[in-house]
Design goal:
379 residues; alpha/beta; six-stranded parallel sheet; 14 helices; 13 strands; 17% strand
Length: 379
Amino acid sequence: MERKLLPRRTRWLELMKNDRVIFRVDAAVEMGMGHLTRCLTLAGALAVRGARSCFLMRGHAAGLAWLVERDGHDMQLLPDPDVRSSGPNGDGGPYAAWLPTTWQNDADQTSRAMDERGSVDWLIVDHYALDARWETACRREGLRILAIDDLADRAHDCDILLDQNLVRQLDTRYRGRLSKDCTQLLGPRYALLRPDFAAQRRLLKGRTGEVHRILVCYGGSDPTNETAKAVQALTSLAVPSIAVDIVIGMSNPHVESIARLCSGLPRAVVHRGANNIAELMRRADLSIGAGGVMSWERCCLGLPAVVVDIAANQVGALTALADKGAVVYLGTAASLTADALAGAVRRLLDDSGRVRALGEAAFALVDGEGRSRVAASMR
């Protein structure tokens, strides 16, 4: 009997149907929300293909369960020890404080959680405190591992390595840190952005470089309150005709003080926990913010940006974006004054040609389809 072949796309979707995927990721004020956000994005892309995901997170992330469950995934908290301890063979390097336990204990707990769920097809790890030792300890027959990294500062024992950043010497930065059989997905072509960014990109009209609306967003936590500095800078410019959208996360502890500062901006709106950030980026003509996942979100929508780094791991990507002419990079947030930020914004308000060029350079870097490319690589 002749075998009837399914259409190619149907065969592709069938390849991951009923696959079980475990994500090991954490989020908190110190580490930000970016790791969880991009993992949720990938889990959504895999769900379209029939895969089922469970997120393993430490106890400090208990308040974020609603984000995971809202998207239709399971979440399981790994039990924290009563007292932080250190174990042999290192403790996870410079980001060890992101774990309340040793990497060995974390690997044991992760392995037990996978055993409880029966067969697991993919383990996806996005955590700066975990490396090849943890990945090797979690391996078992039939399990494939995808590691998401930004730092290239440690070895990995994984089948796929994803680094969605644009940095200098991108093609060689993991040399000697991976096996020869590891597939590397490198660069913003693989940026894990939610589907609404690609949808808003399709609605985007040509940017003229004129600035009528500014978006201020430093991510989900903003522990050093860079948002307040940006509001002060915009207030000092005294341009009442410009509308300002100020986005802060639900975990931001400075909401009341920011709201008071906004009294000096007659057309300012504070959005707390906004779920329409892609639309706000499309509507804006200029953005003020930091690095991380937001860099690729802004690029997808061709949004010109004045940026600072709020963590050392953002420097490489922001430097590369500045080299490409896609951002105005002002250095480390801690050393930037409100006056200096105001001066940088003022120069752009007076130079629509440069604003337009920034947007065009950014738009060329990211198309918003990275999540589909990563999911396709896992089939």
